[in-house]
Each structure stands twice: as C-alpha cells, then as structure tokens.
Amino acid sequence: MDSTNHRFFAPCPRGLETLLETELRDLGVSATAKTDGGVGFQGPWAIMYEANLKSRIASRILWEVGQSPYRTEHDVYRAAYTLAWPEWFTPSQTIKVKVSAHRCPLPSLDFLTLRIKDAVCDKFIAARHKRPSVDTARPNIRLDAFLDQTTVTFYLDTSGEPLFKRGHRTASVDAPLRENLAAGILRLAGWTPNDILLDPMCGSGTIPLEAALVARRIAPGMARSFGFERLLNHEATIWSSLREASRTEQLAEVPALIYASDRDAAAVKIAQRTFQGAGVAGDIRLKHSDIFSLEAPADHGVMVINPPYGIRLSQPDELASFYPRLGDWLKQRFAGWRVYMLTGDMRAQKSIGLAPSKKTPLFNGPLECRLYEFNIVDGPMRRKPRLS
C-alpha cells in the first residue's frame, strides 16, 4: 500500500470551501489548506480513493505531480518534460491538457496548453518511442496545469468525469442544479436525515436525490468509475475493499420521508427514472403538481427550493408575480418550517415579502446566486422599515 504523503487539490463550487474542508477532515484528512474555489490537502494514496468515493462537495480530486518556477513558455515546457509521465500512464492512452491561470504574465493559455502537450509527448517518445494521442472529448487521462505569477503546478485528474456526475442520471432538463451544490445547500440548511424534507420545484430531482443518498449513507461515487482506475499506480485491491466497506454502511431506508414535486410532467418522469436507477424511489414521495397546490406534509420540516429565476418560467410577468405569491403561500401553509431558497434573481429578496434570517452567496457554475434562509412563523414576517 502506498503510504507516501501525496499532495492533492479538490476544487468545489465557490462558497462551499469551508464545507469541503470540514468534509475532508471528517474523512480523515489532517492537513488542509482552504483557498478560493477549493481545498488543498495531503495524505496517502488511499485518502484520494476515499475523497473520490465519498466527497459530496468536491468537483474533482487533482493529484499534484510537480511544481516549478517559470518566466517563459520554454520554462513551462521544460518543467513539464522533467516529470515522470511514463510511470503514471501508457502511450496507448489518450490525453487532454487543461490550463488555468491567475495573474499569469504569459500572453496565451492556448499556446501554453500546446507546449505542455508537446512536453508530455516528447517525454514519451524519448522513454517509450511512442506518444499518446489527444482526445479533448473523452480522454483516458486528464492533465491540469495551474499558473500563478511565478509558479506552474501540474496535476493528474484522479476523478475523470466531474464528481458531481454521480452516475445515476440518464437525462436532464434545462437549468440543472449541480449535485455537489445541492449537497452543499443541504449542509448549509442544517438538514439532517431525521428531518422531513420538501422540494416543491424539484425539476429533474437533484436535491431530493442527494438527500436520499445522504440519508441512506450511499457514497456519492458508488455508481461510477474514476480516472485513477486508468493510472499505472492504481491499487485495485485497496480500492475494491474501500468500496465494499462503504457498501456495508448503507441503510435500507431513510429515517424521515423526502417529498418532491414539480409542475413539469416531463421533469417528474425524468426524476422518477433517476430515483429508480439510484435505488431510492421508495424513499421519495414524488408527484406532479403545481407548487401552490401543495399543502405542508407535516407540522415542521425543511424546505429547499430552487425557483426558476427566469429560466423555467417563460413570461416576465409570470416571474414578477411569482415571488410575492410564494411568500404568501409559505406564510399561509408552512408555519413552523425552515425554508431555504437558492436563486440567481437578485430581485427575489425584495419581491418575496419575507425577512431572511440568513443569506449566503453561492455559485451554480458561473451563475452567481444567493441562498436565503426563512424561518416561517405565524403572523406577519414583513421587513420592519428602517428608522432614519
């Protein structure tokens, strides 16, 4: 078993870095370094397996394989060439190089991408007399490079497909919520598997599915494959034992029911197929319904709602009237509930007519959003006018 203390970096949706750091520490990682957009950490090879299998917040797990100062494009080429690529994968595997940067003084990231690819291929020709091919769509091996003002860092992507792709979804609908953001929202909401949960605008079912996986203790990576399985230093026996140990921790059913609905019949059908494929259809009460036809399924619970903010509602006047109506519906039918609303519509807070007890900036991909917390109580919840 490889007990070397490797360096890794786990990117995540912006706004969830603290949650990811806590999650990694819960998995047994002792050394972490939180930055904007992710968390660096150190540990043995097995902790990388654990993070890929069990992290609900990370987008990827990147293995740092080299770091070097640079001033020119040739410095970057030389730094890439010195690394032991032929020890990690074979020339018969396809590759993709991705370069990102912050305050990099060099003029072209596209040219740097080409130079790094050339360095890797030249190293293989020197060592194996054969070079890997490039496949930008579905590569076997993904190489990442990050440049700041003075330093280039090289990574091998151990995840392959992004970790928010859990392996359950067969179809999608417009404006999907990424699964790791949904998991983060549930954490920020303070929801636990013992709380009744309702998502009244569930779309294709991302939030209730994440909740069911959490409640059943099903590891988010249990149904998919990973990039590290294609690396030469992959330890298949250790990986298999970790997966099997995780499988034995699963529960047969959720402690408290999860409710989900949507007015879009096609989205509900997609959600139902997804829940069935994930083996959690019996844990989620799903129905086709307009939100304003719903009654509270219990005296108290947690509602997580991701309204359409102009994407799934087609008419501007429909959107303008939606938030005031939503606020009234919550006050009339959900007293005793905690409600968490994620929206990218910055008009929502003023329109809904409720005073949020908390608001958290988050990003759904490139889209800036806010997660609002509302504690619904009997009586008026309108904002008090500010005294001058």
In short:
This protein is of the alpha/beta class and 388 residues long. It has ten helices and 14 strands. Helices cover 31% and strands 22% of the residues.
Bulk shape: elongated
The residue-averaged pLDDT reads: 93
Report the radius of gyration as a whole number of Å. 23 Å
How many H/I helices?
Answer: 10
Helix content: 25-40%
When the domains are counted, the total is 2
Note poorly predicted spans: 384-388
Can you tell me the CATH superfamily of the largest domain? Vaccinia Virus protein VP39
Series of secondary-structure elements, N-terminal to C-terminal: EHEEHEHEHEEHEHHEHEEHEHEE
Q: Major sheet, described briefly?
A: 7 strands, mixed
What's the structural blueprint in terms of helices and strands?
Elements lengths: L5 E6 L5 H10 L4 E5 L2 E6 L1 H10 L7 E8 L3 H9 L13 E7 L7 H20 L12 E7 L3 E7 L21 H10 L8 E3 L6 H10 L20 H13 L9 E5 L2 H14 L5 E5 L13 E4 L10 H18 L4 E6 L4 H5 L5 E7 L2 E9 L13
Parallel strand pairs: 5-6, 8-9, 8-11, 9-10, 11-12
Antiparallel strand pairs: 1-3, 1-4, 2-3, 4-7, 6-7, 12-14, 13-14
Report on the structure:
- The radius of gyration is 23 Å and the shape is elongated.
- It is 31% helix and 22% strand.
- The protein is α/β, with parallel strands linked by helices.
- It has helices at residues 17-26, 45-54, 73-81, 109-128, 179-188, 206-215, 236-248, 265-278, 316-333, 348-352; strands spanning 6-11, 31-35, 38-43, 62-69, 95-101, 141-147, 151-157, 197-199, 258-262, 284-288, 302-305, 338-343, 358-364, 367-375.
- Residues 384-388 have low confidence and may be disordered.
